[in-house]
Amino acid sequence: MYKTASGEEIFIIDDHVHNWDASKANQKNVHGEQFINCFYAYHTFLSPPEKLWTREKFERYGGDQMHRDLFVDGYDDMAIFQPTYLTDFYVNGFNTTEQNAAVAANYPNRFIVNGAFDPRDEAAGLDAFEELAATYKLKGVKLYTGEWRGESRGYKLSDPWAEKYLALAEKLGVKNIHVHKGPTILPLDRDAFDVADIDIAATNFQGLNFIVEHCGLPRLDDFCWIATQETNVYGGLAVALPFIKKNPKYFSHVISQLLMWLGPDKLLYGSDYGIWTPDWLIEAFMAFELPADIAAETGVILDLEAKKKILGLNAARLYGIDIVAQKKLLANEKSRRST
Asked: Taking the model in full, what pTM does it have?
């Protein structure tokens, strides 16, 4: 829990976390090594020097370390696991629903476990997804449209089989569709994360919420034009947020455009843990103020009420979380530091 200088408590739901295994033993081939190399490059480029991890820790930090970084040393109250299977690159997968659920079971009331599907599994995968949704009582999925599968180097949400899976998700009540539409990660292909298919999917499936992780970066303009017309499209701030320290001018541009086009009700905070930790991200975000010239030009406001929505209220609405009830469930845990 983050407390403001006046003592107000802000409930924080981290929209985007992982517990991956990128250890040498789990790397299936050179692509697994390339993938984690790229992640680590993002970590070292955008993290403050005092927050840098060793490569060994970065590859495999584990559930206990994750709990400490998110909820003890960090300000998160809850976090949403977003699986990324990458079974062509990693022997046991990079971070799967089952692996995430095992961590979540050790820390009741802290995590929401999202699932995944891959439309390239075609008919055989539909029953498996239905079983996954029932087993873990899924409220959301994470889709990685640029993931390699055999000779395929990605898919689009507008593909016929993707639409069958989205229809099934809607039928099952798995309403929150998180989609990686951000920077490419070596060796994946940049164009496989293009945002154009979000426009089609959101129009065709009005009963689903499409949370575009990383706000489409570096395709910010394309994303904003889509999200402003599609009422069921949201932006996840993971990857955008770390620029708040490294390049505050760039972050000011990104957040002002998102606020101007989407408004504060359609943006979700995400740390993208373990690339970055929520302690410094949240501290920097709470201290951040839009430059006067940008605020005047765009007419947007990033005040405390907007920050509260972004940091937790919006995710609570999408996932049906009663924050008052959730606070009671967490009340007996050791209190975390405040500002």
From this structure: 0.96
